[in-house]
Every structure is written in C-alpha cells, then in structure tokens.
Amino acid sequence: MTSVTPRIAIVGGGPAGLCLGVLLHKYGIPFTIYDLRNKPMKDFLSEPSGPLDLHEETGLAAIRSSGLWDKFVPLTTECSRTLKVVDKHGRLTYTNNGEQQHRPEIPRNALTLLLLSSVPAENITWGHKLQNATRTPEGKILLNFGSNGTAEYDFVIGADGAWSKIRQLLTNIKPHYGGVQYTTLHILNATSRYADLSNLVGPGTCFVLGDKNGVFSQRGVEDSIRLYVSISTKSEENLEKATEKVTVASLKKLLLTDPDMFGMWGDETKGLISTACDEEAARMKVAQLPPFKPMYMLPIGHKWPAQPGLALIGDAAHLMMPWAGEGVNQALRDALDLANATATAYRSSQNPTEFRECLTPLVAEFDKEMFSRTQAAAEKTWANSNLIFSASAVQAMGGMIDSHLTKLD
C-alpha cells in the first residue's frame, strides 16, 4: 500500500474481533475496533469466567500465528482437564483425568486480556453500540453509532455476535431457538466452604445429567465453580417468563419441585443447584437472579454470497450452542484466515478502490472455507445437544467423550 490507506473497521471486541485486530496490527494494517462495552478494568481477570478448551487446528493455530504463545501457556495452568459425568442422584458414571487430552484451557477473561494486551489502545473505541449499517452510493459501509455519530469504512468485519447488525447487509438469516434454556451461577471458594459439592463436581468439567436436563460445571479463579443450569424445553419463552423477577426462594422452589426441571433429582444434586442460587444472589447482592435465557443457533449450513467491503466472523457468521466447545475455536480460526486474506489484498493494492476490488474474491474464498469448516462443527454440536438432552444421556455421555478423545490422538 503506497497511496491512500483503506479504512478498516471491526465491529465487536470479543475473541474473534480482538484476535483479528492482533493479527492486522502484526501485519502493519491500520484498523479500528468498536465495542459496545466499556474498557475492562484491572479486576476483570479476577471475575469468575469459564475455561475455554482451545483446539490445535483452530484456536491454538490462531494464538501461535498471533505471536502470543509464550504469554498464553502460563495462563493455562489454572484449568484441570478432568472430565466427570454424574447422574441426577449424584452417582459417578464416568471419569477421565485428562491424560488423553492435548488441548490447553484458558479462562475466558484471561484470553480476552491476553488479546487486548496486543492491540494498541488507540485502535479500540469503547462504549460504541452499533445502531445500523448501510452501504453508501460510493460502495463504502456507513456505521451509525447513534449519539456517538457515524463513520465510513472501505472494509467492515462483523464480529458483533449472535444478533449482528453487519450480518443484515449480507443475509436475512437470523438465529433460531435451539431447544435449551439456561442460567449461569457461581460458587466462590468452593473447596473450603462446600467441600462436598466441590468433590461432587471435581476439579475440572462435570456433566450432571438427568430427565433431559443438565447442570454443567467448570472450575475457575478464586476456586470458583461456574454452573450452567440448563433445561430442555420446546417453548422459547415460557421458562424465561416464569423465572423473570422472582425471588431466589421462588426460583429454587420452581427448579427443585417441578418434575420437568429438577424435581425428580436427588438431594445431593438439588443441593448443588440450591447452594449455587444462594451464592449467586449473595455475590451479585441481589434479591432476584437473572431469568433463564434461550440458547440460539444459526441454521446449519447457511451461506451468503460475498459482497464488496463486508465479512463476518465468529458468532455473527456461525452461531452455535456450546455443546462441542467449537464456538471460540472457529471464531479464532476465522480471524486468522481473514487476517491473511486482508493482508494479501492490502499488499497488492495502491488505494482503497483497488483494495476492495482485490479483497472481494479473497473474502469469497475465505467464506467458502469457513462455511465448510463451521458446518462440520455445527453438525457435531447439534448431535451432541441431542445426546446430552436425551433420556439416555448418562449412559451415552461417557462413550461420546471417549470417542471424541480417541479422534484427537
């Protein structure tokens, strides 16, 4: 690039957007990241967050290419790779101590700060929520941030999550309900305060399954237990409405007595849910916990034709539920591949017009590879969801885990 530099915007400062920013900065390509949140404070790292299991061909490949491997490795030591499956009465049905696994885990907040540390502060604009995006008569993309004004760009990457505003310029496809509702709860300092519950879920990841519902736990900072309390239901709205603006006592009564929820579970597993409700309310200093929320997914195999000046990565491109651990991995791989395509166009052009013309076919190739790669991940995720929330989940889960780990060897 020897003349006027093209303007590039990344909408969304999650792992996908930040990783793309790290790579573009490494390649010497100017860009701006917009994120609706305020800049994370120093205590962000100490907040409970679930560990992310990064895969060799996707997440770890992006970390290595970003030049962050040496900083990444020390951050993975907090996470145990032990896997447990427990039935609704608290009986252990499967365990794996992680010896077969070769994939580092990192707390989500630690990954965010790691990526953020390699993006110059002047390249990120915080507190900007995108209202809409439109194409100008000149073919550029106009971003409207409401009271924060507008900005015009030659290339805009939508890393803005499930309800992406950028996606609306490329396709009418929207996320649909995935059949599961969930809420997130935490128990801090679990080993010293609740030794029995700490032993129940173990030091790593635990699946407590029964009656087509589940409680999924991960360990995190401050010896915390992070619980995803999940209920399978065909209704997208009923559970959210039933758990909205109710007291903690009322929520516990609903969860622990309704036979369609956890009413038929044993005392030990009910105690895990009850304690987590109380602990979350105390941690948040609230009398009412957030309601259950529906999980959404984009249609498996959906595609769109490439258009000049636009690309999607991460959940904006291929939102899927968390049942295969693929979301962040695919997002980081997206960032790696799109950064390489962008760098090729940037080095081959002399002005913004040439850049857009050179980039469009490269984005089309990027899309083609991404569609194929993420369709396979989405299919695996959907198959896992159907198993996890089935009547035979406890019996089948161990076999599924072993089969998955065998493929990694």
Automatic annotation (TrEMBL):
Keywords: FAD, Flavoprotein, Monooxygenase, Oxidoreductase. InterPro entries: FAD-bd, FAD/NAD-bd_sf. One of its GO terms (molecular function) is monooxygenase activity. Pfam families: FAD_binding_3. It comes from the Eukaryota. Coiled coil: none annotated. Residues 8-255, 310-347 form the FAD-binding domain. This is FAD-binding domain-containing protein. It comes from Fusarium sarcochroum.
